[in-house]
Design brief:
The chain has 225 residues and is α/β, with parallel strands linked by helices. The protein is built from 9 helices and 8 strands. Strands 7-6-5-4-3-2-1-8 form an 8-stranded parallel beta sheet. It is globular and about 55 Å long. It binds pyridoxal-5'-phosphate.
């Protein structure tokens, strides 16, 4: 009951253009089903094995988003069904996603993760690495043997520093929005930035005010982990 209530309350606060990813990592299928029965169809997980188990057990009209760091050797387990991979931060990973997507006759949507926090531990590309990646994608789009035709880059993802300092978080979100806007005009069949994934339970309102179009909310829906 509480899960359904939390969902309704959060959804009532989201502008129309903002997509809600219900982050269900570590939570049992019963909890996810409660959200499902309240209408939620997009779930985010950060471990491929756990996500795959839940995908097997749950209705097939769910969109599964991988929001965690992805190991290349595990991409094959989610390639048959994953809807969006948020944390792509290397060409090697992108190539593996492309390869596994091809094996499954699919095109898999991805977000490039950009490093915006001050902490050392967060994954992601810096601005220069992002430009290099986008250039590689442009090269692929222009070449005759399109090497990356089973992936589609649909946007960017970022995580702010884990801090109580709202000014700092706002600065980081605005920085990501600026980077996003800079590359928004890119428009090839396999790269078009429409989605900006930023904001979690503690900072999603701020993220939305800074231009987020996709929020990843866990504990405010399902309770603390
Ligand atoms: C766990 C997680 C979230 C959700 O965090 P909450 O604070 O529970 O809302 C969002 N994004 C990523 C990448 C996560 O790993």
């Amino acid at each position: 009951m509480l899960i359904a209530q939390n969902l309704t309350e959060i959804k009532s606060q989201l502008p129309k253009q903002v997509t809600l990813v219900a982050v269900s990592k570590t939570k049992p299928v019963a909890d996810l089903m409660e959200a499902y029965n309240a209408g939620q169809r997009i779930f985010g997980e950060n471990k491929i094995q756990e996500m795959t188990d839940k995908w097997e057990d749950m209705p097939k009209d769910i969109e599964w988003h991988m929001i965690g760091h992805v190991q290349t050797n595990k991409v094959k387990y989610m390639a048959p069904y994953v809807s969006l991979i948020h944390g792509v931060d290397s060409l090697k990973l992108l190539q593996e996603i492309n390869k596994q997507a091809a094996k499954n006759n699919r095109v898999i949507d991805c977000l490039l993760q950009v490093y915006i926090a001050e902490e050392e531990s967060k994954f992601g590309l810096d601005e220069q690495e992002l430009e290099e990646m986008l250039n590689k994608l442009l090269d692929s789009a222009r070449s005759d043997n399109k090497t990356l035709k089973n992936i589609r880059i649909v946007g960017l993802m970022g995580m702010a520093t884990f801090t109580e300092n709202k000014d700092q978080i706002e600065k980081e979100f605005k920085h990501l929005k600026t980077i996003f806007d800079k590359h928004k005009t890119l428009n090839t069949e396999h790269c078009q930035l429409n989605t900006l994934s930023m904001g979690m339970s503690g900072d999603y309102q701020l993220a939305i005010s800074c231009g987020s179009t996709m929020v990843r909310i866990g504990s405010s829906i399902f309770g603390s982990r």
